[in-house]
């Protein structure tokens, strides 16, 4: 699959079965599917991995948020960390086969994570988004600064739509991450093809 990265993140509202149903339709166009379910137990997350596998999603496209134990045991490709997660450098040393990403919200955080040898970072939120009500977006200027300062891929997240993707990519993003843009689309397959065309 050519072009920039497209990450799709579970939204914590719909069931993981529903997430898997959509993933099964769109996965040829998607770089990674993130199971981001803060309230779920390790056992429930493992069931979510099974749902994705049943829909034909390869383990190489599945990422578990925060729970490195689940990522390692289920043999998925990656783990995505938050500020409260285990140390990224320790995870890289212990599980060298995992692709490790991390969410950051400033240039300082991004530089710190690059030093810890993470493989990519999510930076955002770029625009106002329903998942973070009342918080203004961080905008494109710092995104552009971060993409110039770091060598690793910077994945933009937060309020990104077809209508504003070009300006995000012009700012230097290596890809985008979406939730509602695909999970709540009337026709996820048609929509993901539109995303992928712009990401080429």
From TrEMBL:
Q: Which PANTHER family match?
A: THIAMINE-PHOSPHATE PYROPHOSPHORYLASE, THIAZOLE TAUTOMERASE
What protein name is recorded for this chain?
Thiazole tautomerase TenI
Q: Which GO terms describe its cellular component?
A: cytoplasm
What GO terms in the biological process aspect are recorded for it? thiamine biosynthetic process
Ranked from the top, the taxonomy reads: Bacteria, Bacillati, Bacillota, Bacilli, Bacillales
Q: Which UniProt keywords apply?
A: Thiamine biosynthesis
Q: Where's the Thiamine phosphate synthase/TenI domain?
A: 18-182
Query: Which residues are the signal sequence here?
Result: none
**Record organism:** Chengkuizengella marina
Pathway linked to the protein: Cofactor biosynthesis; thiamine diphosphate biosynthesis
Among InterPro entries, the record links this protein to: Aldolase_TIM, ThiamineP_synth_sf, ThiamineP_synth_TenI
Q: What Pfam families would the database entry show?
A: TMP-TENI
CDD domains annotated for this entry?
Answer: TMP_TenI
Q: Does the keyword rRNA-binding apply?
A: no
Q: Which Gene3D superfamilies match?
A: Aldolase class I (3.20.20.70)
Q: Name one GO molecular function term.
A: thiamine-phosphate diphosphorylase activity
Q: Does the keyword Metal-binding apply?
A: no
User: Which superkingdom does the taxonomy of this entry point to?
Assistant: Bacteria
Q: Which gene encodes it?
A: tenI
